[in-house]
Amino acid sequence: MRGSEPSIAGMAGTVGRLGDLLRVAVAGVLLVGGRQMSLGEEWPSAFLWLSVGYFGAAVALAVLRPLRLRRAGAWVTAAVLLDVAALTGVMTVSGGFRSGLVPFLYLAVGGASLVVSRRLAAFYAALVALALLGENLWRTWVGGGPSDTYLVGLSGAGAFAVALAAQAVGERLRRAEASIRAQQETLAWQREINDRILRELRDGVLVIDDEDVVRYASQPLRQWLGREPVGERVEEVLPGVDRLLARRGGERWVAVQGRRLRCRATVPYRGGGWLAFVSDLEEVSREFERNKLASLGTLVGGVAHEVRNPLAAVVQALELMRGEENAAARERLLAMALDNAERIERLVEDVLSLGRRQRPRPEVLDLSAWLRQWRREALARLGRGEEEVVLEGEEGLRIRADPVHLRHILDNLLDNAAHFASRRAGAIRVCTRAEGERVRLDVCDDGPGPAPQVRERLFEPFVSSRADGTGLGLYVARTLARANQGEVEWVDAGCFRVWLPREGP
């Protein structure tokens, strides 16, 4: 029966308390005014003892309420048994069915049925019906003037109707209560989330009611003001910020506690109140400077690390050349110095490209014609044959991009491909294709592609799987592509893809 026990919280608790009060009231009326209502005339002494016992038991049930929290269903059943037994006993000594106490039995059964299962409600109704029939049979047996059996049976059936109707109402109320509780929990959760978001916001938020009184202030704003502004008028908190500013949707600068705050007010929300958003732009600027310095420190540290090794190799080669008399050895040392000097030059060029990434000067380019010119220059620079680097794709594609940036993007991708590609014909393919409003440009080689350990970090600065790589080529390529409203991504194996905006005819 554990599943049928009612919860003492919420509606069940309220019904239980009202039931206790009503039981004490009925028992008190029977004890004090029962004789005036012509009750107990057939057996006055028994009526007195029944009234006193019923009143005492009712008071005990009300007083012992805290002990009824664990087994609420059992206590409800005990209360119904008490009501049925006491009221049936009073009926027995007061003329039976004609005493007029049947509605009190209905009241006891109906109140209990509100908080129990349908099975228990039917059980309580059966108790009342059996009590009425039993009392009437007892009167028949002792010759005490029994009531009409038909009326008694009809009253017993009425107990079932009252119990089942009350149980249905109680079930509906419990569902409504559960729905309200779930909504309250959801609202509490949403309120907690909103409070957490407001606490984490860098901007301050003020909620102002229809009388221009602050009703809520977020944590950053309380820190800037140095106090809790809730309850103050908004003009005392942020001078010059008012409802007119909110209606215009404008902003105003306010000096508070040595800070210059930018205040933006919204149009009034439903209910007459309005909102004000406050930003400390000086703090934002300081945070930006800190981040910029941190990024600069990371860049300088990476550049210093990448320059140190080739520079040391150049110095060492020059030192060895000073005392070397063998011409062949001097040539090898000179070649080593030149290779490392070129590596330093590439690193410097990549770093300088980062400085140019935010200043694109886009032009409309015929991609096929532009790629043919770029290919001729790239082949000469790399020392590759024409058959090794193949151009494929659609003719007449037009893109909008900075030609200097585009050259640097493709140079970096081609240098990367040339490092891993073989010397066979078609080892490197540059393919173009239009897809919607963008152009796809693939640079692929027949090499194994990036090493597995660096594939997740390909576009991070100073990450490279090449022994002589600077780790900036792919990072610069993606940065320049994004500056031109494009993107660079690794597709598979030795294939990288560039997306660029397409220019219509």
From TrEMBL:
UniProt key word Membrane: yes
InterPro entries: HATPase_C_sf (IPR036890), HATPase_dom (IPR003594), His_kinase_dom (IPR005467), HisK_dim/P_dom (IPR003661), HisK_dim/P_sf (IPR036097), Sig_transdc_His_kin-like_C (IPR004358)
Membrane-spanning residues: 21-40, 46-65, 72-91, 121-138, 150-169
Signal peptide: none
Record keywords, A-Z: Membrane, Phosphoprotein, Transmembrane, Transmembrane helix
Domain annotation Histidine kinase: ranges: 302-489
Protein name: histidine kinase
